[in-house]
Amino acid sequence: MKQYCSVCKAYFDMEVVEEGSGDEVTWLRCPRCKGILPYMKLEEEPDAEPAAEAEFSLDSIDQDAVQEYDSKRQYEVGDVLYHRSWNDYGRVVEKLILPGNRQAIRVRFLNQGDVNLLEAVREKV
């Protein structure tokens, strides 16, 4: 079932953990954070991914704008990255602040899916 996860701030197809009958709640598991949440049907529930994200494909990538991922660099939402280890392209969809004031980005890769990567990592002196 397609559901919005308020922790991950994204829509996912979620696994049903416990099926409710009648007035009972149906419980779902988020595939990213593994959290359990109730299924809530909304009138304005989207039928598909937003258009900007749906258009991201290997054919839509401007090779001149691709940056090879480097944890020392900083990125902006919308930047397209190439991850050499995975031989995969991804688009930055969110900037994150992790515990310890570390910076990270959430990247939606063509093959790997959504992955959090560190950014602006400083070498210790």
Structure keywords:
single chain; 125 residues; mainly beta; 2 domains; 5-stranded mixed β-sheet; 3-stranded antiparallel β-sheet; 10 strands
Describe the structure.
The structure is a single chain. The protein folds into two domains: 37 residues, no CATH class; 65 residues, no CATH class. It is 3% helix and 40% strand. By secondary structure, the protein is mainly beta. It contains one helix and ten strands. About 6% of the residues have low confidence. The strands form three sheets. The protein has a five-stranded mixed beta sheet, with no helix packed on it. It has a three-stranded antiparallel beta sheet with strand order 3-4-5, with no helix packed on it. A two-stranded antiparallel sheet has the order 1-2.
List the SSEs and their pairings.
Layout: E1 2-5, E2 10-13, E3 15-18, E4 27-29, E5 36-38, H1 51-54, E6 67-68, E7 80-83, E8 88-98, E9 102-109, E10 113-119
Parallel strand pairs: 6-7
Antiparallel strand pairs: 1-2, 3-4, 4-5, 7-8, 8-9, 9-10
In short:
The chain has 125 residues and is mainly β.
Distance between the termini: 49 Å
Across the major sheet, the strand order is 6-7-8-9-10
Bin the strand percentage.
Answer: 35-45%
Q: Which sheet architecture does the biggest sheet show?
A: 5 strands, mixed
Class of secondary structure makeup = mainly beta
How many beta strands in the DSSP annotation?
Answer: 10
Query: Which descriptor suits the 3D outline?
Result: elongated
Can you give the helix content as a percent range? under 10%
Structure annotation, total helices: 1
